[in-house]
Write a structure and sequence with these properties.
The chain is an alpha+beta fold. The chain is built from 3 helices and 9 strands; from the N terminus they run ααβββββαββββ. It has a 9-stranded antiparallel β-sheet with strand order 1-2-3-4-5-9-8-7-6, sandwiched between helices. The longest helix is centred in the first third of the chain and has 20 residues. The termini are far apart.
Amino acid sequence: MNKITFVRGLAVVAGLALFGAGCNPFARVEQKIGEAVAERAIEAVSGGDVDIDGDNGFTVGDPKTGDVASWGTDVKLPSGFSEVLPRYPSGTVITASIQNKGKSGSFVQVIESDGNEVLGWYDEQLKRGGFELESEMTLGVTVRQYEKVGMKISISVMSEVDEESGKMTTNLTAAYDEASG
């Protein structure tokens, strides 16, 4: 079996695990079995630890390095994520990761709020924590870089209005790096 066919097969198994089998009364059992099969198959290929939760998403971790990445509809920040980088108080985290034994990490959060409001909140929180705004760039996305000795934090926001609901949604990407600064 070639690698492309194997990877496509893994994608199908993971899809079945995440989305279940419709109205079948045994769908939850089938979903859990599908999750377990997909976890083992991905672990065999990647060499990492995999946790698939059909309700929220999945997490992949490398036991050798401690790196962890999660994707889903409402993921938790991984254990070891720096407390210096705050999470915006509302919204849903859809991806989160840590690398280098927690010395760097990031998350993406979807927020029903104006991007300027989110930037203002981060500016206040980070300056209160001793960070200084080092740079800012806006080209459809606003990116701000904050620094203090031993750490850099990057905040990126992009906002748009949903045409149907008229609600403002902001996509926030927040990252930290303790290794530099």
